Amino acid sequence: MEAQAKTKSNASIELNGSFENDILSGLTASPKRLSSVYFYDEKGSQIFEEICDLDEYYLTRKETEILERSSHEIIDAMSMNTHLVELGSGSSRKTRILLEAALAQFTETRYSPIDVSAEILEESANKLLKLYPDLKIETVADLYEVGLEKLLQNDQSPDCIMWLGSSIGNLTRQEATLFMYKVRQELGHEDSFLLGVDLRKRAAILEPAYDDAKGVTAAFNLNLLTRINRELGGEFKLDKFQHTAVYNDTEGRIEMYLISLEDQEVWIERLSQAITFVKDEKVLTEYSYKYSQTEIESLAELSGFRLENQWFDENHWFSLNLFKPNMQVKLQ
Hints:
- It contains 10 helices and 13 strands.
- It is an alpha/beta fold.
- It has one domain (1-233, 291-324): Rossmann fold (3-Layer(aba) Sandwich), CATH 3.40.50.
- The radius of gyration is 20 Å and the shape is globular.
């Protein structure tokens, strides 16, 4: 990697151990569940980039619309020379819009993407450095909490934690509050948190975004089984499972499943175990929670933030939310 881009990576050992343990506990639970964090191996990350270009997947277009219209206003709301730290950066395609605004307004722009995929980080960092030679990049290949601790512990500049997309929706509302609260504990009065939040809307809009006509989201979901086969010696046959996504209006969330199409047993060598499935049994692979305005405000308040500003697309389908630490709240 070029001189200005520094990389910290010790994720592989931790993630591999977690993967094996989580697959065992998830597939032996009742009901069965696989964590959505494991979607993003190298192949899964590539498929997700395809998802972002789908007609049905409105989220990327709507967030991009907000960024293109409001990036300078968003950067203006931060302290001068704020260190931009991004969670789950992927290819950093949308982030470039914010980086260009920061480069135009700050005297120095530092960008630190955190992602579990070291390969994606290195590729995107090299591309960014070619486009923006004045940008200072430090990549961290690790879990979010670990990466944030590494970046923030000795950082004296203002920081903005950026979590674009709608990944917070993969957490339950309680988990989202706890995660935000933990981040809040690391931040000072000049810091901020820029959060992408998908808004509640009709199932007719939501469900196709997670179950598209071309089957790209199905391939993304099924890639979890391919990963188990490759890394853990699994014997999953993909044609014996079906992807589905449904909107639970009561809970305000998309629920994504893999469904066993027949009674079957699947041997997983690294687990030394056969996993039994009955016909039509569902394996939960992802929740994607959607938020109302009240729920966004509640998330901020419960996690020790205040909602400083918001930006929406013209349809009001998606939102970018700038949280600032509520210094009047005493953290435990």
